[in-house]
């Protein structure tokens, strides 16, 4: 091969290499610019979405509506000492803060009454299926996981049979009035496009037994506290018995006399103290009571599920 041909080939190779390098160098900053632009656009979109959510003006739900009752029923204690959604040890509560038994109890409370099988002729007291509990769990919390196990609820001891996937209660329980009771009331519900925010007031009343002459029980003296913690100050006291010796202490009716009632949802759940008394008590100590917010996310079909409870005041 002639020398001139070799030189020509070398020059062509060098030119090709040079063009490739130039092309890479030219495009590399452009790709980086595109990535930066894409990141900026995503950040801007996220910022706009967040801003839209923050700027959304909620609608106040009618406290007499069915949806208000459903939402209030979910968080209202079924037992006067039950504080699943009102735990003062945490600033907020989510599904992960519940142990397995608590998750099952909450789901059980959302099973329709007609799906709970009542025993006949003494064969058992009550029975539920895992399928019904699964559906109730989904309704209460959305798509979550739990482990089926023996369940204690409604003063009943349910034994789980994994073969038949049923929970059967053959032994009942009992119980009297507790030494403390939670008094809660839903006073405001805000509806957003994707969620409900439910606002509650909470008081705790705790009692001590009063005796006359050392052995004769007269009744109880109740302290009213602004939260479910014994260490907070007492904001009121009343007695649930009569007697001139204790006339310096109001009865509950005397304490609540003349109180102007504020509006609260009327839930179907009403454990413990009479609802009218609860409303007056929450109205009297409205500003002192601890305030909670419960967040429920909406499903496409209009139903909802709980995601968080938190203390706001």
Give an account of the 3D structure:
The protein is α+β, with helices and mostly antiparallel strands and 313 residues long. Helix content is 31%, strand content 28%. The protein has 6 helices and 13 strands. The protein has helices spanning 3-55, 66-75, 100-108, 130-141, 252-255, 275-284, and strands at residues 59-60, 92-93, 117-118, 126-129, 151-153, 156-161, 166-172, 180-191, 195-212, 216-225, 234-239, 290-298, 304-311. Strands 1, 2, 8, 9, 10, 11, 12 and 13 form an 8-stranded antiparallel β-sheet that branches. A hairpin with a 3-residue loop joins strand 9 (195-212) and strand 10. The chain is globular and about 60 Å long. Residues 21-26, 28-37 and 40-52 have low confidence and may be disordered.
Structural class: alpha+beta
Q: Into which percent range does the helicity of residues fall?
A: 25-40%
How many DSSP E strands?
13
Query: Cα distance, first to last residue?
Result: 93 Å
Write down the overall geometry: globular
**Mean pLDDT over all positions:** 83
Beta percentage is 25-35%
Number of helices: 6
> Main sheet?
8 strands, antiparallel
Uncertain ranges: 21-26, 28-37, 40-52
Radius of gyration: 32 Å
- The helix/strand order is HEHEHEEHEEEEEEEHHEE
